[in-house]
Amino acid sequence: MGCFKANGVISRETAHLKIKNAVYENLQYTIREQHYFLLHRLQVEFYLLLGISR
Fold first, then answer.
1. I want to staple 14 with a disulfide (CB 3.0 to 4.6 A). Which of 3, 7, 36, 38 is the partner?
2. What b-and-e string marks burial along 8-47, b requiring 16 or more CB atoms within 10 Å of the CB?
3. Mean pLDDT for each consecutive 10-residue tract of the chain (54 residues)?
4. Model-level pTM?
5. Are 3 and 11 contacting, i.e. CB atoms less than 8 angstroms apart?
């Protein structure tokens, strides 16, 4: 692996990048999950509204 030094220690910059990437991916996943959840709730409320108005 190119990011590892000869003695097996990761440089501080590499460690920082790895952490930033992990946090970013986690954030993207969370946002996507919340988006789907909100979308589903809106659909359910919309159909309930349609059912009431009929």
1. 3
2. eeeeeeeeeeeeeeeeeeeeeeeeeeeeeeeeeeeeeeee
3. 57 88 89 89 88 70
4. 0.46
5. yes
